[in-house]
Design goal:
The complex is a heterodimer. By secondary structure, chain A is α/β, with parallel strands linked by helices. Helices cover 54% and strands 18% of the residues of chain A. Chain A has a five-stranded parallel β-sheet, with helices on both faces. In chain A, helix 2 runs parallel beside helix 3. In chain A, 39% of the residues are buried. In chain B, 53% of the residues lie in helices and 18% in strands. The chains are: A alpha/beta, B alpha+beta.
């Protein structure tokens, strides 16, 4: 099953090309052009990994990250930005971003990060599921 | 008006070069005027008041003396007149006409009273009919003499001094004797005027003073010490005859300033004159004036000195303060410029990163498509070309990342840093320069260099400044720069940057860390080393330079393991 990736960036050409390249690498990619569109789509569709640009009109990447984390806390978010300040990176990481990459980045590296993020999510979900099962068994006295 | 004065004093319109000189001059002038005008007015008023007061004090005794002396003279003359009148009333004409009797009278007069020389009786025709005295005047006719005529008109007469038949100064005192038959006889006596001299010498006047008698025509009646003898014309312009004493200030024939006090006699045509040189009369005034003058000039000198000195200090302080303010402003401007350059760099980096990302992705996609395609002509060439695009994009990415890194050094941020890493970053930044100028860079970096707490960006800036200076000092192709890092014995670490450049003269080394000191003329701001010094100091470190002319320079930075937080809070060297 393909990893479902959402890319939110206001640079249309960039996301289209990146989407094609990731699709070549067997990812299922959806693209949106703003932070608000990303939030909207996340409410409807469950993605495996989300890639957010920091500098976007209306709602920027950091604010979008905050809202997305509220909607789907387990979905890993990779921040991708042209303005690589340490402050942004620290803020993003504090808010629960999986990683922070600087544009232009190598697609192989990005693909690797997506896979890592997906694996991380998977592991996390698995742990939660296990914990839930253990909890059910414990409550039933098994 | 007030605004104009302020503008004049502080010369708000003038250029700064001469502004301080003019300001100094104007403040001195204004201060001098403000202090000297009231002082001078006070001195002038005091001078006038003291002079008036002292003159009154000096003149009053002179007036008093003139009055008293005149009174004495008048008393003497009146007494002589009374004696003659008494004789005329006591003795009959027959007795007076008797030679023995009149001789007896003269003898008793001489014995009892001072000054009588002779006595004689003149008949109505003017002939001296009876005479007692040292001369043989008997039979002489006096009918044409003023004394005879005046006595017959007024009943009594005191003459002015004259020489007469005896050829020495004397006065005549005469009274009229009217017989029952209406005939008018005259009893006259001659009085020696030496008594006048006795009276004058008894007045006890100051040295250089003069006292004499004149008549209303200005003829001396006694000898003057300085202005003439008896019966000569007095050369001075005297006040008119007045029975009340009066005084004038004038100049004498020798052009000497004198005070003349005079008092006219009521009993006869005499004026008593006292002359005192002003130098004597106003001696105390002159002494006081001299003292006041000395005090005035000393005060003036003290005021002048204080004003000049104080204004000098004031102007110096204003100048220092202005220079300090200007320096701070320039540093601020420079810092703002750096900050805006930083922000601009960050903006440019961000703006470039996005199109770079597109190029990168497009080229990457091209490469993906090439890789996925079957073999075709020049597939490897296409692959190579797209690879070249992504390589160039990667180079651009590194540049923009460096730009972003350097733009972050606006504020102090203390964090654990590794100096060797920063040196590599800076060298990387300068590698193009090093390559094109064929410079030799020797990195002698300690493997065991301990990490320190400091500001990454600020240290980057300092190293960039020092290395840029070192590169400027060395020659292309021959330049050699060594960067050595070691752990410092007592403090944290030391960085030594050695170049084989032209070296720095001793005179310049003294000012090398001063703001705006530059030898690069229009190429340098003169702030690089000053800012570096400021940064290192604020980070608790030290920076010093050792140089030999023609051999090169060594800049040494010592940084502590951890800077003093207070120093960091106290100021950002760039701000």
């Amino acid at each position: 099953m393909k990893i479902k990736v959402l890319i939110a960036d206001d640079e249309k050409e960039f996301i289209e090309t990146l989407a094609q390249r990731l699709e070549i690498r067997d990812f299922a990619v959806t693209t949106v052009g703003s932070g608000s569109a990303a939030i909207e789509i996340v409410e409807k569709i469950n993605f495996d990994v989300i890639i957010l640009d920091v500098q976007m009109p209306e709602i920027n990447g950091i604010d979008a990250l905050k809202k997305i984390k509220k909607i789907t806390p387990l979905t890993p978010v990779i921040m991708l930005t042209g303005e690589a300040t340490v402050e942004n990176a620290i803020q993003g990481m504090k808010l629960g971003a999986f990683d922070f990459l600087i544009k232009p980045t190598q697609t192989t590296l990005l693909a690797e990060k997506i896979k890592q993020a997906h694996a991380h999510k998977h592991e996390h979900e698995e742990r939660i599921r296990q914990a839930e099962i253990e909890n059910i068994l414990r409550t039933r006295g098994w | 008006m007030f605004k104009k004065l302020i503008n004049f004093i502080f010369l708000l319109d003038e250029r700064p070069i001469n502004r301080y000189k003019s300001l100094n001059r104007n403040i001195v002038i204004i201060m001098l005027l403000i202090t000297i005008i009231p002082l001078t007015c006070m001195v002038i008023i005091n001078n006038f008041q003291f002079k008036t007061h002292l003159r009154d004090q000096i003149m009053d005794p002179l007036y008093s003396m003139a009055e008293k002396s005149r009174h004495t003279f008048e008393l003497f003359m009146d007494q002589q007149l009374s004696i003659i009148r008494f004789i005329s009333n006591t003795y009959s004409l027959a007795n007076l006409g008797n030679e023995l009797t009149i001789q007896k009278i003269l003898t008793s007069l001489k014995k009892e009273h001072y000054g009588f020389v002779d006595i004689g009786l003149i008949d109505p025709k003017g002939d001296l009919v009876s005479y007692a005295g040292p001369y043989s005047l008997l039979g002489k006719n006096y009918s044409q003499q003023t004394a005879f005529q005046e006595t017959r008109v007024k009943g009594q007469y005191i003459s002015n001094v004259f020489l007469g038949h005896r050829k020495y100064p004397h006065i005549v005192i005469a009274v009229e004797i009217v017989k029952n038959d209406g005939q008018s006889w005259v009893l006259r006596a001659t009085v020696d005027t030496s008594f006048f001299d006795k009276l004058i010498s008894g007045m006890g006047l100051e040295r250089n003073s003069d006292v004499f008698l004149v008549n209303s025509k200005g003829i001396f009646q006694t000898n003057s010490l300085y202005y003439g003898d008896t019966l000569e014309k007095c050369p001075l312009e005297l006040p008119g005859k007045s029975f009340k004493s009066q005084g004038i200030e004038t100049k004498d024939n020798k052009n000497q300033d004198i005070i003349i006090v005079s008092a006219g006699f009521a009993i006869a045509d005499y004026i008593l004159v006292i002359i005192q040189p002003q130098s004597v009369a106003l001696k105390s005034w002159h002494a006081l004036k001299t003292k006041m003058g000395i005090i005035f000039f000393i005060s003036l000198a003290i005021i002048l000195f204080t004003i000049i000195k104080m204004t000098g200090i004031l102007i110096k302080r204003i100048k220092t303060s202005d220079e300090h303010r200007e320096n701070v402003l320039t540093e601020l401007q420079h810092a703002q410029k750096l900050s805006s350059i930083g922000r601009l760099a960050a903006g440019i980096a961000h703006e470039i990163n996005n199109p770079l990302a597109i190029i990168n992705e497009k080229a990457g996609l091209m490469m993906d498509l090439i890789d996925l395609s079957k073999d075709f002509d020049q597939k490897s060439k296409f692959h190579e070309l797209t690879l070249s695009i992504t390589t160039s994009v990667d180079r651009c990415r590194k540049i923009t990342h460096r730009l972003l890194g350097f733009s972050k050094r606006i504020d102090f941020k203390i964090e654990p840093i590794q100096i060797n890493t920063i040196i590599h970053e800076v060298i990387e930044f300068l590698e193009k320069d090093i390559f094109y100028r064929r410079l030799e860079i020797n990195l002698n970096l300690s493997d065991t260099l301990k990490p320190i707490f400091s500001d990454h960006g600020q240290i980057q800036q300092v190293l960039l400044n020092l290395l840029t200076n070192a590169f400027a000092a060395v020659q292309d192709g021959l330049g050699r720069v060594e960067i050595k890092t070691t752990n410092h014995e007592n403090k944290g670490i030391s960085i030594k940057i050695t170049d084989n450049g032209c070296g720095i003269p001793k005179k310049i080394i003294e000012n090398i860390f001063d703001p705006f000191f530059t030898t690069k003329k229009e190429k340098g701001t003169g702030l690089g080393l000053s800012i570096s010094y400021g940064i290192i100091t604020k980070l608790g470190g030290e920076i010093f330079v050792d140089s030999k002319l023609g051999e090169g320079s060594i800049f040494t930075i010592i940084l502590p393991e951890k800077p003093n937080e207070m120093e960091i809070k106290n100021g950002n060297p760039e701000n």
